[in-house]
Design goal:
HAD-SF_hydro_IA, hydrolase activity, acting on acid halide bonds, in C-halide compounds, 228 residues, 46% helix, 12% strand, 2-HAD, Rossmann fold, 2 domains, DNA polymerase, domain 1
Length: 228
């Protein structure tokens, strides 16, 4: 259901990890590697936390570098030995080998047929993003595949969203972010964009942020609201 009545956006910006791509394969691998049912959850939280540390302190490292450091921190927190660099890279390569959620291709197809301009915006670096989208067979749906790499600021920094709007020559108010993360939706709304929250299992909205324009359990459900 709609949180408020948004204007029809001219541009749709999609988050990638968890929003479009199913991370279950990576989750299983990380949990098995560290022998903990919560290892992936801890590691992903570290990945997000220290991407924000880099943004705030102005010392940028790309997502794979932070991910590798996160594995070292996770091992230390669990009282385990650090993994060899080669093993960490094997795990990180799984980020480029993730399938789309079952609702993604039907939802993107409906939006594409309706004439929406669609791009991605992800914290993953450009080469990883290209590999991810090719593996998931999602590339043809998107006008451009955008990464935060050029800005050297991670989402939810406002510059990441407004830079994408400038590049596509669409005003923030006429742009909608679609994401499965409360922090991403909060960042977009504070940057002046519309936003749709895709309520994937285990995800929640940030109660202290401006409300999203649309909310739905799947991309298909959000697409139906956008199409009226």
């Amino acid at each position: 259901m709609a949180a408020f009545a948004p204007a029809r956006p001219q541009l749709l910006i999609f988050d990638v990890n968890e929003t479009l791509l199913d991370l279950s394969k990576l989750q299983q691998a990380v949990n098995q590697e560290f022998r903990s049912a919560f290892a992936f959850q801890q590691w992903f939280a570290l990945l997000l936390q220290y991407s924000l540390v880099d943004t705030v302190t102005g010392h940028y490292h790309d997502f794979p570098a932070i991910g590798a450091a996160g594995f070292d921190m996770l091992a230390q927190a669990l009282g385990q030995s650090a993994r060899p660099a080669a093993r960490k890279q094997e795990l990180l390569r799984l980020l480029a080998e993730l399938p789309p959620h079952p609702d993604v291709i039907p939802g993107l197809t409906a939006l594409q047929h309706a004439g929406f301009r669609m791009v991605t915006l992800t914290n993953s670096p450009g080469p990883t993003l290209q590999q991810q989208m090719a593996y998931a067979q999602l590339t043809p749906f998107f006008e451009q595949l955008l990464s935060i790499d050029p800005q050297k600021h991670y989402k939810p920094h406002p510059d990441t969203y407004t830079a994408a709007c400038r590049q596509l020559r669409v005003a923030p108010a006429d742009t909608m972010l679609l994401a499965a993360h409360g922090w991403d939706v909060a960042g977009a709304r504070h940057a002046g964009l519309q936003a749709a929250f895709i309520a994937r299992p285990g995800q929640a909205q940030y109660p202290l942020a401006p409300v999203p324009s649309l909310v739905g359990p799947t991309l298909e459900a959000v697409a139906k609201q956008l199409l009226g």
